[in-house]
Amino acid sequence: MKNQTVRMISLNGIIAALYLALTIVVAPFSSGAIQFRISESLNHLIIFDKRLKWGITAGVILYNLLYSNILDVLFGGLQTFIALSLTAYFGKYFPKIWQKMVLNIVFFSVSMCLIAWMLFITLKLPFWGTYFTTALSEAIIMTLSAPVMYYIGNIVKMKLN
Amino acid sequence: MNKLILGRYIPGNSIIHHMDPRAKLISSFYFIGIIFLCNNWQSYLGMFLFTMLVIFLSKVKVGFFIKGVRPLIWLILFTVTLQILFTSGGTVYFHWGIISITEFGLTNGIFIFCRFVLIIFMSTLLTLTTPPLALSDAIESILRPLAVIHFPAHEVSLMLSIALRFVPTLMDETEKIMNAQRARGVDFSEGSLIQKMKAVIPLLIPLFVSSFNRAEELATAMEARGYQGGVGRTKYRVLSWQFTDTLALVCMGVLTLILVYLRA
């Protein structure tokens, strides 16, 4: 029987590395003024095991620490962690995978208010306009990536069991 | 292959390079906090001079810092333009329909530009002068007191170290899979959003399978070497707090007092 703690540390570490690798190597998709990072699809991993929230959050924090700025480390990390924790907590009330995915998309889109607030206090960008565009872009990329992650989920579940 | 170098660290021999990563991390976060105290040109000038002094001490070329601003330049310019054109108050210099260039608009625009550029400069300084692994060690050390509320500080730090170790490997693997799929005719850059999403399926599936296998192998290797958690473990890289680190924090305190004095 493998030690679950060791297994989870290594898996979370690799997921954080995967987040960085995908963000750095795969060019963001762009549609009009909005850009989508493919690594955002990793947010759906929380559905298959709530302990993976550490790896996903670490990926966001490390990327922002190494390639972006400190405000993004704070607000981006916090937004991801809050959304993942909410999905992990409320996900148990929704038995089906697709329901959990919808819940995750809603939490990630709603929690973009933190990013909008960050842009409001630093750049004085209009809060509601920024909130709408950032939440919309998050909802679009997470909705588009949901079917892909639903499929990948079978691999994840197989490896985690 | 240049992209495979992780982070933006530039090795050097300056006082900033030799500082403890914990002091650099705390000072950087603190700097971002106190920049919001600035509300007039004197206080922004004070912060600008302080930033320039630190950049000078780091002996890193200013060009690297300007490179750090470049990815965000359109967002900054967009915001500044919005501020300049739509903020009212003070002397009106130009007016046409709903657009007006006013004294307050210009001042606000310039202040926002300065604030954001200074935040980026300070963040860039941290990553240019600190190796990624030292940053991960610093995070562990700073989070360690949280162990009293059962926060898994050691586990989080180990996870960050594993992540940093495997980023170049996974980047290499991502590139290889992308090239292999390109050779089979997959186009990652063309088409609608849905087509692009479909194109990443042949990338994500092999990448996930190999990453999970890698995590499994790593866990087995850690167990085989007797990894038992953080208690009683010694470290290969030991952080040492020097006089210059304390001095740096004192300087941040003095800077705060100066800002409080300078602000309107």
General description of the model:
The complex is a heterodimer of chains A (161) and B (264). Chain A is mostly helical and 161 residues long. Chain A has helices at residues 4-25, 53-67, 70-90, 97-110, 113-123, 127-160; strands at residues 29-31, 34-36. Chain A has a single domain, classed as Arp2/3 complex 21 kDa subunit ARPC3 (Orthogonal Bundle). Chain B is mainly alpha-helical and 264 residues long. Chain B has a domain at 1-130 and 238-264. Chain B is built from ten helices and two strands. The longest helix of chain B has 32 residues, at 193-224. Chain B is flat, with a radius of gyration of 24 Å. The mean pLDDT of chain B is 87. At the A-B interface, helix 1, helix 2, helix 3, helix 5 and helix 6 of A face helix 2, helix 5, helix 6, helix 8 and helix 9 of B.
Give a quick set of tags describing it.
heterodimer, A: 161 residues, mainly alpha, Arp2/3 complex 21 kDa subunit ARPC3, two-stranded antiparallel sheet, 6 helices, 73% helix, B: 264 residues, 2 strands, flat
- The CATH architecture classification of chain A is Orthogonal Bundle
- How do the strands line up in the largest sheet of chain B? 1-2
What's the overall average pLDDT of chain A, rounded? Answer: 87
Largest sheet of chain B: 2 strands, antiparallel
What gross morphology of chain A would you assign? globular
Tell me the span between the first and last alpha carbons of chain A.
Answer: 12 Å
Fraction of residues in helix of chain B: 55-70%
The CATH topology of chain A comes to Arp2/3 complex 21 kDa subunit ARPC3
Helices and strands of chain B: which structural class? mainly alpha
Beta percentage of chain A is under 5%
Q: Level of helix content of chain A?
A: over 70%
Number of helices in the DSSP assignment of chain A = 6
Rg of chain B computed from alpha carbons, rounded to a whole number of angstroms: 24 Å
Shape type of chain B? flat
In this structure, how is the largest beta sheet of chain A organized? 2 strands, antiparallel
The structural class of chain A is mainly alpha
Give, in order, the helices and strands of chain B. HHHHHEEHHHHH
Please report the first level of CATH classification, the CATH class of chain A. Answer: Mainly Alpha
Strands of chain A, count? 2
Write down how many β-strands of chain B occur, each being a DSSP E stretch of 2 or more residues: 2
Low-confidence stretches of chain A: none
